[in-house]
Structure of ABC-type multidrug transport system ATPase subunit:
Amino acid sequence: MRLRNVSKRYGRRREVLADVDLQVAAGELLALVGANGSGKSTVLKLMVGLSRPTSGTVRRNAQVVSYVPDVFASHDRLSASAYLRHMGRIRGLSSHAARKRSDELLDRLALAGGADTPMRKLSKGNAQKVALAQALLEPPQLLVLDEPWAGLDAIAHGTLRELLTETANQGAAVAFTEHSDDTVKSTATRVCELRNGKLVSGTTATLTEITLTSGPDLDWSQQPDVLEVRRNDDGVTLILPTGSHDAALLTALTHGCSVTSVRRVQ
């Protein structure tokens, strides 16, 4: 997914974000760092569509998006297991699949008291484990987490790092915020810093533009790593992360497309 020249303003107040250009590629673990109030949570909400930019564009090439907010409002009446089964059914899983997956995740995260513990009795850390489990019930293509390690015990701390790495290795784009330098260094594959609403380091990765002509009318938006598709009378132009464009070239040639040009655009 990509934010291109994104700014965000609430009412007449100063801009929360100003001209942010940021990309998260498939398989990447992006850490957003910065002081409180720097705009990190706003960026995450823009990524998942919970907020809209005042200016600029947000493009998501992901059908399954999961989000873990900084504050998880747990349900008073349901148990952790019942809540996750309910969320699994909403996501299209069968009751059996939802229960199996939720039990697996809660076991790995070591939920205190077990899966049948009522949500109202969960501590902040254990409620966070349920929030993490619901985000991973179905393999996401884009996973966005706001301070996901907050309140977790030492065992779950390491387990979460493993789960995020596994998710990225399965082809998802993962973005998270975190204050701990050690956690960021041990988890992230790229780090971006926000300061007063502006991206001051770790700017967007280099992109490659591929121009194609002829061949079948493929749905390029569903191809791995394709961030943007521009169609015209002569063919199609694809925008992909540099280093991740070989698969698109192979697909194009396999389907009889002609490659007009391949060039870096930034």
Q: What stands out?
A: The chain has a mean pLDDT of 88. The first strand starts at residue 2 and ends at 9.
